[in-house]
Amino acid sequence: MLDYLESVFYGRSWHGASLLKTVRELDLDQPTMENDKGFSPWKIVLHCDYWKFEVCNWKADKRLLEDQRSLLREAVRRFPAARLDNAPADSVSYAGCILGAAARDVCHAAHLRNLGVIGFQVSRRGSQERNLR
């Protein structure tokens, strides 16, 4: 398996030029050029980078999610109630920002449940759950 990993990244592979050779052949003005589907070389390289990082750090990323949520909760708890209706520099109110963060969690939870990932199970209440620890 190590030989295969090395060949598709650095060397000759069954599919043609290696990933690294392909990336090195791109001109400086090409990385951000998107095709009709919105993909660019830069986006694909970032996807490759993050996917490798992601595989190695799933548990750490789940802890990070919980840690960041705890930090947000503490910041909201300490935020002066009298300022909730104020808006920072041409934005929605602080209350709107906080509610928006909560709404994004709802949206992301639904997105995760609807990915069709094997291993999610429907609970008796109808929600999908999975032990992610």
Overall pLDDT score: 75
User: What's the SSE pattern?
Assistant: HHHHHEE
Strand content: under 5%
- What is the total tally of β strands? 2
Shape: elongated
Largest sheet: 2 strands, antiparallel
Distance between the termini: 27 Å
In total, how many domains does the architecture comprise? 2
Helical residue percent? 40-55%
| Unreliable segments of 5+ consecutive residues | 126-133
Number of helices: 5
The gyration radius over C-alpha positions equals 22 Å
Classification by helices and strands: mainly alpha
Question: In a few lines, what is going on in this structure?
Answer:
53% of the residues lie in helices and 3% in strands.
Architecture blueprint of SSEs:
Blueprint: H1 2-9, H2 19-24, H3 41-56, H4 58-78, H5 94-113, E1 121-122, E2 128-129
Core attributes:
5 helices, two-stranded antiparallel ribbon, 3% strand, mainly alpha
What does this protein look like?
Helix content is 53%, strand content 3%. It is mostly helical. The protein folds into two domains: 1-56, no CATH class; 60-133, no CATH class. The protein is elongated.
